[in-house]
Amino acid sequence: MNDDDEESEELLNREKKPPSFWEFSYYQSLFDVTTKEVLDRVLWSALPRLGSGSTYLENHIKPNPDLYGPVWVGVTLIVTTSVSSNVANYLESVGETKHFWHTDYTRVSFASSAILLYIFLVPLILWAGLKYRSIETRFTLIETLCLYGYSLSIYVPISILWAVHLTWLRWTLMIFGALMSGIVLISSLWPSLRGETRKMAVITISLVLLMHALLALGFVVYFFHEAHVDPTSPSVSSPSAPAVVPSSVPSNLSHVVTRMSIVNGTNFTSSTNSTHRI
């Protein structure tokens, strides 16, 4: 065996090092996921399977955690929530004769902040808190981010249905979405909390459920609770009352005021028929 063969064999037998956090290949691997994997994770994130002996995290995320799905779900939810909210506001304003309806673009920024912070900041705090307490978690930070991102998948179709102006339907969909995705979330996190004291485990789970419920509640209360009508908008049904030209205006100037009012679109009428001369 020559030296070249020995070197080749040594290179093949050498264990391949995982990419560093600072290398581009590390982040490239987080988006290396197939369409089938993403669709399966989206589907089963809203369908809890209790009593199966394994969790959603172990069955669908651990083989290959990704950030493509969470980012896609987050951006899609931002768009559907903002658009549906404005559509709902418009439908509720149909027939309203007091104020003009206008698109509220601030909802896009608010939805972006709330959803992206929930997907990336909340799991980071949870994972860091468990590490700080020296709890042996069964999931990494990337797996936690992936879990939280996919847990919002159920709200994408729900946010579209929220445009329907039925209060009972909106609250029913909110409870249903929070319950289904919350069960998947808790069942995936609970096995890692068994090493914690019962009190701390209950507190952790309660905080996770509270944050999940507050996000769902915020969707309904802020975006779909009622039509947001700008009280400063001009009235549609009540035209401006004709302005009155003071009687002290000389008659040889009144026609100038009248002509200016026609140009400006204002209807001025004289309050007196008397003739004044300078």
Number of helices: 11
How many domains make up the 3D coordinates?
2
Helix content: 55-70%
In percent terms, what proportion of residues is strand? under 5%
Description:
There is one protein chain. The chain is mainly alpha-helical and 278 residues long. It has two domains: 26-223, no CATH class; 239-278, no CATH class. Helices cover 60% and strands 2% of the residues. It contains eleven helices and two strands. It has helices at residues 3-13, 24-29, 35-44, 56-61, 68-93, 106-132, 141-150, 155-161, 167-189, 198-223, 251-264, and strands at 243-245, 268-270. A two-stranded parallel sheet has the order 1-2. Helix 5 (68-93) packs parallel to helix 8 and helix 6 (106-132) packs antiparallel against helix 7 (141-150).
Give short descriptive properties of this protein.
mainly alpha; 11 helices; disordered C terminus; globular; 2 strands; 278 residues; 60% helix; single chain; two-stranded parallel ribbon
Protein topology:
Layout: H1 3-13, H2 24-29, H3 35-44, H4 56-61, H5 68-93, H6 106-132, H7 141-150, H8 155-161, H9 167-189, H10 198-223, E1 243-245, H11 251-264, E2 268-270
Q: Summary?
A:
The chain has helices at 3-13, 24-29, 35-44, 56-61, 68-93, 106-132, 141-150, 155-161, 167-189, 198-223, 251-264, and strands at residues 243-245, 268-270.
